[in-house]
Amino acid sequence: MPNDLFSALADPTRRSILEMLADNDGVPASAIHDQFQISPQAVSQHLKVLREANLVHVEKKAQQRIYRINTETMMELEKWTESMRDRWTRRLDALDAVLRAEMEKSAKHKKEDSK
């Protein structure tokens, strides 16, 4: 996964923008700005970061810029996240098996010692 993708997702305002775009198909930049208590320039900068990370697409319609979430990048991110979750699940399952074996061994020794 590209590092700029995670940098883009690190900011709560950008995550909120992505959530808005996920709930709506095609949102004008002005409507995005209206949802935040920051300057239009700040929103534009956030949108630029999202574009550069390939998380959103922009389409120019007359005087408007319409933003849409890039589902391909989001699906790629989801696959990566699932892969990481699977890796950690396997590691935790292995740790669980070792701990269970150690607990059983410990219980067996205690039982033998009490005889």
How would you portray this structure in words?
The chain has 115 residues and is an alpha+beta fold. The chain has helices at residues 3-10, 12-23, 29-34, 40-52, 71-113, and strands at 27-28, 56-61, 64-69. The longest helix is centred in the last third of the chain and has 43 residues, at 71-113.
CATH C-level class of the largest domain is Mainly Alpha
SSE pattern, N- to C-terminal: HHEHHEEH
- Overall, the morphology is rod-shaped
- Give the second-level CATH assignment, the architecture of the largest domain: Orthogonal Bundle
Distance between the termini: 58 Å
Mean of the pLDDT scores?
91
Which strand-content bin applies to the residues? 5-15%
Summarize the main sheet. 3 strands, antiparallel
Look at the structure and name the CATH superfamily of the largest domain.
Winged helix-like DNA-binding domain superfamily/Winged helix DNA-binding domain
Strand adjacency order, main sheet:
1-3-2
What fold name stands as the CATH topology of the largest domain? Arc Repressor Mutant, subunit A
**Count of DSSP helices?**
5
Low-confidence stretches: none
